[in-house]
Amino acid sequence: MECKIRKWKIDDAAELAATLNNKNIQDNLRDGLPYPYTEDDAKYYINEMLKADKNSIFAFAITADDKVVGSIGVFRKENIHSLTAEIGYYIAEPFWGKGLGTCAIKQTCQYVFSNTDILRIFAEPFSYNIASCRILEKSGFKDEGTLRSNAVKNGQILDMKMYSLLKTDNERT
DSSP code of 109? Predict the structure, then answer.
């Protein structure tokens, strides 16, 4: 199964909607996404990503054998953190455990470090999301610790992990 990242296309809306219309995926993401997630929601998101600031938001479809199976994005921070960005991603549930997350993260970080002045990319998965933590570790991210009682999701107070990858780390791999 060949994994690639690419820019979004409006024709990806149906596959994106099918992926995000899944509570198991949404339970591992930040709040704000509609549920159920419709094709119109997907079209809106794709349009927003296509017109986003190309120096601050780097959003890609994750594909496997030319089928959209997820989403990944890197979002530049501001002010004193302007050389830092946060990464977020998800993979359609039928494709979990196949190495696509690791593949997409490596490609995305390589793209961002090669095409921008960003020096640090970080991720904050929920600490219970062991699979996501493992994906980050396999992608070269370093565990910087636990952010205790850092989020409220589905009415529960949750810890989050802090992972980072530096441009200098990426140059060594």
Answer: H
What are the sequence ranges of the domains in the chain?
3-172
The residue among 30, 95, 105, 25 whose CA lies nearest residue 72 is: 105
Which one of 3.40.50.2300, 3.50.50.60, 3.40.630.30, 3.40.50.150 gives the CATH number of domain 3-172? 3.40.630.30
How many Å from the N-terminal Cα to the C-terminal Cα in the chain? 23
Please, are residues 140 and 169 in contact by the beta-carbon 8 Å criterion?
Answer: yes
Give me the pLDDT at residue 172, please: 59
- Rounded Cα distance, 154 and 33, in Å: 13
Cα 61 to Cα 71: distance, rounded to the nearest angstrom: 5
Please state the pTM of the whole predicted model: 0.94
H helix intervals, 51-154: 100-115, 130-138
In this structure, are residues 36 and 22 in contact, taking their beta carbons and an 8 Å threshold? no
Taking alpha carbons only, the member of 66, 86, 67, 65 closest to residue 75 is: 86
DSSP code for 38: P
127-171 pLDDT per residue, tens: 999 999 999 999 999 999 999 999 999 999 999 999 999 999 866
Q: Please give the helix or strand (H or E) that residue 86 lies within, else none.
A: strand 84-91
